[in-house]
Amino acid sequence: MHRALITGLVISASVALAACSGAASPTAAPPSPAASVAAPSPAASVAASMAASPAASQAPATSDAVAIQNFAFAPASLTVKSGATVTWTNSDAPSHSVKWDDGTTGSPTLATGATYTRTFATPGTYKYVCGIHASMKGTVVVN
User: Fold this and answer.
1) 60-110 tens-digit pLDDT
2) Sequence-separated (6 or more) residues with CB below 8 Å from residue 83
3) Of 33, 95, 108, 37, whose CA–CA distance to 64 is shortest?
4) Which residues have C-beta within 8 Å of that of residue 65, sequence separation ≥ 6?
């Protein structure tokens, strides 16, 4: 029994170290907002890090992200260059949506983990709210 316990600990440590070693690369892009949310357990963290592909973590320079978490858009205000594509990712358990103040078609209802993207071709200030929780507000400023 003692040998089984030691073997289990060695395997767990090896998996944890293997998962960490890929994240230490000096050329790796910062993790996406969805990837930076704390996992409920070490096993889930290992599974999440193994599921992420290098292509997914290397977003193009014209991409920006907004996390939907804790009933808020983070960041609440985002400044991007004309032509940028912004991606919203719902990291909350409840569903949310993106509804534009100017009447532009927004997102459908976003369940946990769902994303919505919009490309901004014209400079200006674009205000939005969650179509389900009106207290959640955000702004995209396009230069």
Assistant:
1) 445 699 999 999 999 999 999 999 999 999 999 999 999 999 999 999 999
2) 62, 119, 120, 121
3) 33
4) 32, 33, 59, 86, 87, 88, 89
Single pTM value for the model:
0.57
Residue 127 near residue 139 (C-beta atoms within 8 A): yes
pLDDT score recorded for residue 75: 97
How far, in Å, CA of 68 to CA of 75, rounded? 9
Domains of the chain: 1-58 (no CATH), 61-143 (2.60.40.420)
Name residue 127's beta-bridge partners.
Answer: 139
Over residues 87-97, the pLDDT tens digits come to 999 999 999 99
